Amino acid sequence: MNAFLDQLSSGAAPSAGTFLMSASPLIAEAVGCCGFDWAIIDGEHSPIDTMDLAHMLQALGTTPTVPVVRMAWNDTVLVKRALDAGASTLLFPFVQDAEEAQRAVRATRYPPEGIRGMAGLSRASRFGAVPDHFKTANSRIGVVVQIETPAALDGLEEIASVPGVDALFIGPTDLSGSMGLHGNGAHPDVQRALQDFARRCNALGKPAGTLAASAEQARQYGEAGFRFVAIGSDLGLLTGNARGMLAKLREGAAKPSGSY
């Protein structure tokens, strides 16, 4: 049983999430109280280390929001540490082919299905309190792979068909960069690629996810077949709101107070 995958199979589409990049357990807890279905703790583009991750998982654990952990890389040691810290759903960046997807899945599984190292007193096992942890843990892990390049899109069917790959996520900004469009996720070519990605994932029976720039875009992605959509990040929501309020304040201060 995996809470994130249970959400994706619930029938309500798309489920809504956000990214957590601040490395702050307090902000993670606050975001978790806002009503998001899930939140991606971003270990790729933030200063989050293993202890930060453990604290943020503890913070989200007090809220209804389900954590997903984006790894810094498809690295067996990093995966082991994240799982032992209590992560149960991992997002692997920059997966290019089926072999890399297989390596990601194997890193999340105890033998004989995989190569995850065994530790009896980790947070994942409730410090030894979970009965038969080593026998049951594999069935509780969710694996999401991230597609970021045209080459990965070309091999989408092979990647999605790897046993243990539960869902796929496409990053519009990274994809735009690999297409030579450098950050222009709204470019028509990128948007066509996203819609084709969702169509193909649905044909394979695998949930597709992405990142939206606005609530309206998130609704459009849901109509295109995406099952889970992130809206911004904790830092983006904070700085965007701060800049917006400050701009309104300064705009008001610049207006004449009246005529004389």
UniProtKB/TrEMBL annotation:
Please name the Pfam families in this protein's record.
HpcH_HpaI (PF03328)
Q: What is this protein called?
A: HpcH/HpaI aldolase/citrate lyase family protein
Q: Where is the HpcH/HpaI aldolase/citrate lyase domain?
A: 17-238
Q: Which GO terms describe its molecular function?
A: aldehyde-lyase activity; metal ion binding
Tell me the protein family, please. Belongs to the HpcH/HpaI aldolase family.
Query: Which Gene3D superfamilies does the entry mention?
Result: Phosphoenolpyruvate-binding domains
This protein's UniProt keywords = Lyase, Metal-binding
List the signal peptide residues: none
Q: Which GO terms describe its cellular component?
A: cytoplasm
Is Metal-binding tagged as a keyword?
yes
Q: Which InterPro entries match?
A: Aldolase/citrate-lyase_domain, HpcH-HpaI_aldolase, Pyrv/PenolPyrv_kinase-like_dom, Pyrv_kinase-like_dom_sf
Keyword Acetylation attached: no
